[in-house]
């Protein structure tokens, strides 16, 4: 079983410089960012390191990206003799289009789903390259890789993503869900009387954080629980839980399931 990779890249040129978006293969790659699941590592590959990048790609069991089939792989193809299109590939934007019938930007999808988004724009990345600011360029690229990975993981754990539809927060079902979803894991922990540790996404009031909670009440899509971080009872939205794990028996709460 090969490694699972998340990929994003930045270009040296703009569409205007190469005569339009039909000339993607002329944009050239400044840096290609990858997250490796097996290595649990973010890695930025410069052009002189693309031989090694090619070995990573050929060995992968799955490559995950956003608009990667029509953009990233077309830009990257001139650097390799093997066909990138033949590699196992999940393009999140393609999945969104399959569900909705139209495209969404990575930024809007990330803001609606994760509560935070990209750290800049593709034009910023080109400016970094042309001004030899490699630190900023690599950070920007790997930030996009992290956002893409977190969207993939959210979909895998919840079975959906979220988007803003003219002011309405609406769900996008995805086809890469794996195993029990977050809500099922929460319900199982509640029924067995176990405390859980949650990775809670950023909200308007608070930044993303890790919390240990003892569940008191589950109602619809909300949890009322004692939060050990705040030492008080708090309300948590299940859709805002990015990850969950059980960590042992909780205290004697008067639990109630609606």
UniProtKB/TrEMBL annotation:
Protein name per its UniProtKB record: YprB ribonuclease H-like domain-containing protein
Domain YprB ribonuclease H-like, first and last residues per copy: 26-154
Origin organism lineage: Bacteria, Candidatus Komeiliibacteriota
Gene source species: Candidatus Komeilibacteria bacterium RIFCSPLOWO2_01_FULL_45_10
A GO molecular-function descriptor: nucleic acid binding
UniProt cross-references to InterPro entries, sorted A to Z: RNaseH-like_sf (IPR012337), RNaseH_sf (IPR036397), YprB_RNase_H-like_dom (IPR038720)
Source organism, top-level taxon: Bacteria
């Amino acid at each position: 079983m090969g490694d699972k990779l998340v990929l994003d890249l930045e270009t040296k040129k703009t569409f205007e410089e190469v005569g339009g978006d039909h000339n993607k293969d002329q944009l050239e790659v400044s840096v290609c960012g990858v997250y490796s699941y097996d290595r649990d590592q973010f890695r930025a590959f410069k052009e002189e390191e693309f031989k090694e990048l090619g070995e990573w790609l050929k060995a992968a069991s799955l490559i995950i990206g956003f608009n990667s089939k029509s953009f990233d792989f077309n830009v990257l193809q001139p650097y390799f003799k093997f066909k990138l299109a033949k590699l196992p590939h999940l393009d999140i934007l393609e999945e969104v289009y399959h569900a909705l019938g139209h495209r969404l930007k990575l930024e809007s999808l990330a803001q609606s789903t994760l509560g935070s988004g990209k750290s800049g724009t593709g034009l910023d990345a080109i400016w970094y390259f042309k001004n030899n600011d490699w630190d900023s360029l690599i950070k920007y690229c790997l930030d996009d890789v992290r956002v893409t990975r977190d969207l993939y993981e959210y979909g895998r754990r919840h079975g959906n993503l979220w988007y803003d539809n003219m002011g309405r927060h609406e769900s996008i079902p995805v086809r890469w869900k794996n195993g029990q979803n977050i809500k099922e894991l929460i319900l199982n922990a509640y029924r067995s009387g176990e405390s859980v540790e949650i990775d809670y996404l950023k909200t308007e009031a608070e930044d993303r954080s890790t919390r240990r909670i003892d569940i008191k009440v589950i109602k619809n899509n909300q949890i009322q629980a004692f939060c050990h971080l705040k030492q008080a009872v708090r309300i948590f939205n299940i859709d805002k839980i990015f990850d969950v794990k059980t960590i042992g028996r909780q205290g004697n709460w008067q639990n109630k399931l609606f």
